[in-house]
Amino acid sequence: PMSDLLHGHVPCDSCVTDLQRTMYLTNCQFGLHGPLEVLSRGAVVAFVSGLQRCDAVRQLPWGEAWFVDHCLSQLGVRREQQLALLDDERCGQHPKHCEAPRVAFHPFKAWKDFQACHVHAARAGLWP
Asked: Which of 60-69, 87-96, 108-117 shows the lowest mean pLDDT across its residues?
């Protein structure tokens, strides 16, 4: 399952206090990217309870992932960069071979392309 793949990327060894457990992972050199968003329970609680404090950010003409990234940052939620989560063309990577040790590959809009990626990734092995 995906939770097993994520386990190696979550820095729980440093999760000592409740405040430190309130974190989210960025998966792209440009910040949080929509195909895969990883937030702790504490980050979700902070986001929902602090959403009104992000009204100014919400007015900006960017997408949902950008908004979540900037809102969480504004709310003081710890941001942990984990570039090994996702292979995505929009992040400057080349997911078409689906052989890197990643949790997800994107974009694959056509079913046959997705299917081929899935088969190749499964054949390449389990990571990390």
From this structure: 87-96
pTM, full prediction: 0.69
Instruction: Tell me how far the alpha carbon of residue 20 is from its chain's centroid.
Output: 18
List the one residue out of 51, 53, 21 whose CA is nearest residue 39: 21
Q: Where are the alpha helices (DSSP H) in 22-63?
A: 41-50, 55-58
Report residue 20 as tokens.
């430190």
The token pair that represents 13 in the structure block: 């060894």
Helix (H) or strand (E) holding 41, with range, is: helix 41-50
Produce one character per residue of 26-65: b if its CB has 16 or more CB atoms within 10 Å, e if not: bbbeebbbbbbbbbbebbeebbeeeeeebeebeeeeeeeb
